[in-house]
Amino acid sequence: MQRIYSNTISTSGLTLVEALVVVALFTLLMGVIMMSVVHFYSFNAYTLAQAYQVQDARRGLERLVRDVREMTFADDGTFPLARMEEHLVGFYSDIDRDDSVEYVEYEVDGLLLEKRVYNATGSPPVYNTSPDEMYTLSEHVQNSIQDVSTFRYYDAYGALATATSTVTDIRYIEAEIIVNIDPVRDPGEFTLKSSAALRNLTEGF
């Protein structure tokens, strides 16, 4: 009996068109995944940056309150509170507790919350006209842009200062700082508030 052998090989697989479709779908899927990853890290980087700025502003506000509470008469006898403006407060305080009183200014200038320190020199003491120390406490303060007062001033009876009030009337200062690194994006702005009494003053002045 003669045996007949078949050399036929059965093959199966993707056609060229099917392979192209698979590659296209894989590329599309990877693109979607990469975009999601980039968006995730971008959002988290923004949120983290916003948190850092809020923390910086909070520390700046804490410094302000501490310095205001230690407000006292200048080495040359000037009244403790020197300037009371909407976005700037200037006063005398022994901020480093070295028995020499410094002149200190906190100001919102554009988007910056700044602190400037002026030392007194000579005898009789004269305060320097240029700051001896200068600090940027926050870089994204929105008060000026939103027309919101950074500082508010109150007299001994709790009444808000008026146009006729003078520095000698003030016994209480309230500060409000609005922080937002990008006003058109979430998570949105943060408002920080604090206040301090001028506790070294008495009603005799």
Description:
This protein is an alpha+beta fold and 205 residues long. The protein has one domain. It contains 2 helices and 10 strands, in the order αβββββββαβββ. It has helices spanning 16-69, 143-146; strands spanning 81-84, 88-93, 102-109, 112-118, 120-121, 126-127, 133-138, 151-155, 170-179, 190-197. Strand 2 (88-93) and strand 3 (102-109) form a beta hairpin. The model has no long low-confidence stretch (mean pLDDT 83).
Provide keyphrases for this structure.
205 residues, alpha+beta, three-stranded antiparallel beta sheet, 2 helices
How are the secondary structure elements laid out?
Layout: H1 16-69, E1 81-84, E2 88-93, E3 102-109, E4 112-118, E5 120-121, E6 126-127, E7 133-138, H2 143-146, E8 151-155, E9 170-179, E10 190-197
Antiparallel strand pairs: 1-2, 2-3, 3-4, 4-7, 5-6, 8-9, 9-10
